[in-house]
Write a structure and sequence with these properties.
Blueprint: E1 7-8, E2 11-12, H1 13-29, H2 31-35, E3 41-47, H3 54-73, E4 85-91, H4 96-109, E5 113-116, H5 120-131, E6 137-139, E7 155-157, H6 162-179, E8 186-192, H7 195-207, E9 214-221, H8 229-238, E10 242-246, H9 249-261, E11 268-272, H10 280-285, H11 287-290, E12 294-297, H12 305-316, H13 324-342, H14 347-355, E13 371-372, E14 375-376, E15 382-387, E16 390-395
Parallel strand pairs: 3-4, 3-5, 5-6, 6-7, 8-9, 8-10, 10-11, 11-12
Antiparallel strand pairs: 1-2, 12-15, 13-14, 15-16
Helix pairs in contact: 3-13, 4-5, 6-7, 13-14
């Protein structure tokens, strides 16, 4: 009986074994080269880049991309032999369902972690979907405190939630009013009627009276909205000292412009987690409507040299500077730091590394990262005010680069 030779693509088995042996010798001679050619580390980036929240999602994507480019240019993930970071991008389409579907796709593509989400409803749904696969999920914005109060071990929020932000906003508003001789006594709250805005309004309604403010009315509006005339007319009729809006970008721009056109001039517009009040696009396109608007929100730390570099890179891409970009830049660096310390793409090891994190290589006005039940206890909001075409920080004092202008009339 003749011996059979197994062939593959025209090569017999003996030839293939010789080639494999030669490859082994080469690998011993060039270990550094092979280590640098490790498999890419796949990290999901989930943002809404279509639908009502597309602008915010696009800026979040840019921040993550800038961080990935920097990391790869600096040699990749050194603990994994210089493996490069590969973005697996998912468009949440501005809906919770879209976010969940993209998490399922990312799971199929083998991501070791996910960054982003932006809106609270998307983050709630997407983190829940990710928990089924134990995928570490680093939430960028998603301010609803429900996100980190469900006991999901895979979920970490880098920024502050609306409980923390509202508390800071109210404390700073009281300081602002006290310092100006208490000119403001009455308030109208305007909010988007979704999870984030409704939760914010409820907190404000409960806490403002404790600080000496009378809430005349709370006005809800849908997202998206195409007309704010009725909201503006209601504000005119109530004639409050302060208007406190919590809305996404398009709705607040519409409200601010309508108030300007109708010459409605309260003593101050004091926004909380507003999608436009801390956004250079609004400032540049509608400078009169934006001037002197205050906001308590996420914002980058101007004192850190890297902040200016990331901003310049963003503007070179033709985009305005707003908080989504530095937050996602920082979140991507945070998760890569965890992978470096874990020395692995194993999801549980990354989760353990995040829980032990003392990450400080971010560009937010935070201390070192410390997660307690998924919430970064080092995170804080700041107060900004548009002054002469620039967005300045007015609170807290250790971060501020301007004094507040209040009242504005």
């Amino acid at each position: 009986m003749k011996n059979r030779t197994t062939t593959t693509g025209g090569l017999d088995r003996r030839t293939l074994l010789k080639a494999a042996a030669a490859g082994s010798v080469a690998s011993l001679a060039m270990p550094g080269i092979l280590r640098a050619q490790g498999a890419a580390v796949k990290i999901g980036v989930l943002q809404p880049v279509t639908g009502a929240l597309a602008q915010d999602g696009e800026h979040g994507r840019i921040g993550a991309e800038i961080a990935i480019n920097e990391i790869n240019k600096a040699g990749g993930i050194k603990a994994l032999g210089g493996a490069k970071v590969e973005m697996v991008f998912g468009d949440a389409r501005s809906t919770p369902e879209g976010g969940t579907q993209e998490v399922e796709r990312m799971q199929a593509e083998g991501v070791c972690a996910i960054v982003g989400g932006f809106a609270s409803p998307i983050c709630l749904a997407a983190t829940q979907a990710a928990s089924a696969y134990n995928i570490p999920f680093i939430v960028d914005v998603g301010v609803s405190d429900q996100i980190v109060k469900r006991g999901l071990k895979n979920t970490f929020r880098f920024g502050p939630g609306f409980g923390s932000v509202t508390s800071a906003a109210l404390d700073n508003l009281a300081k602002l009013n006290e310092g100006a001789g208490k000119p403001a006594k009455t308030v109208v709250i305007v909010h988007e009627d979704g999870l984030f805005g409704s939760g914010m309004a409820k907190l404000l309604q409960a806490e403002l009276p404790k600080r000496g403010f009378e809430v005349l009315e709370t006005v809800a509006h849908p997202t998206p909205s195409r007309d704010m005339a009725n909201v503006a007319l209601r504000i005119r009729a109530l004639n409050p000292d302060l208007v406190i809006p919590s809305s996404y970008y398009s709705e607040f721009v519409l409200l601010a412009r309508t108030m300007q056109q109708q010459k409605i001039k309260p003593k101050g517009i004091y926004a909380v987690l507003n999608g436009a009040a801390s956004n250079y696009r609004f400032v540049k396109e509608f400078p009169e409507a934006a001037n002197l608007v205050m906001d308590c929100n996420h914002w980058a730390d101007f004192r850190k040299p890297k902040t200016a570099e990331v901003r310049a890179e963003t503007e070179r891409a033709g985009k305005s500077w707003l908080y989504n970009t530095p937050l996602n830049y920082s979140c991507m660096r945070l998760v890569v730091d965890a992978i470096e310390r874990a020395g692995s793409t194993d999801r549980q090891k990354i989760i353990d590394a995040l829980n032990a994190s003392t990450f400080a290589d971010h560009i937010m006005p935070y201390g070192a990262t410390k997660f307690v039940d998924g919430q970064n206890m080092g995170a804080q909001a700041v107060n900004t005010q548009v002054q002469n075409g620039e967005i300045k920080i007015i609170f807290p004092s250790e971060v501020a680069n301007a004094k507040p202008i209040f009242p504005v009339i």
